[in-house]
Amino acid sequence: MSHLRTNNPVALQTLMSETLFGKGEQEGSLSSPIENVSEEATTRETEEFIYQGDKSTGVLFILRYPDYPYFSPQAEEAFLKTLGALNLSFENVAVVNLANSHNPNDFKRIMQFFQPTKITLLGVEPISLKLPEIAHNAYMKGKIATVFNTFSFEEMFADVHKKRLFWNEFKTFIVS
After folding, report:
1. Could you say which architecture CATH assigns to the domain 41-175?
2. Within its chain, how far is the Cα of 68 from the centroid?
3. Biggest distance spanned by C-alpha atoms of the chain
4. Please, what is the end-to-end C-alpha distance for the chain in angstroms?
5. What share of residues in the chain are helix, strand, coil (percent, to 5)?
6. Ranges of residues in the chain whose predicted pLDDT is under 70
């Protein structure tokens, strides 16, 4: 058996289930609300998908952030505020990053594994999942789930108009 060796922080965070602190860092300086969720809502690494949160609620967020395990720090903060404004928390949604090489980029497998009823594509083009084209801030109702296509948080940070469009439609989508 060969040993895996890496110093890539994204790979290490994906492979490790505990938060590690380097020399001189104070405990808590690297942690985030997403890393500190309850045990039921932690990253699952032994399943077909590596994800965070709770897949049993039927609410799934799909993103593709190649530079982060889930979100950039700024996007994570915006995501948590968005959830909180709708009386949701990280404990009652699931988040999967398709940039993680472990996660299949296959919509049928996503549907089988997560069994969602509401899916939000955050900056993930529907065509990349072999879905029909869905305009930004619009949704498509399927037999089992409704897919809401919107911008990534970075796109919304750069354009306040995109942020407003997202928020107005997302509130309707999530409560319906």
Report:
1. 3-Layer(aba) Sandwich (3.40)
2. 11
3. 53
4. 51
5. 35, 15, 50
6. 1-46
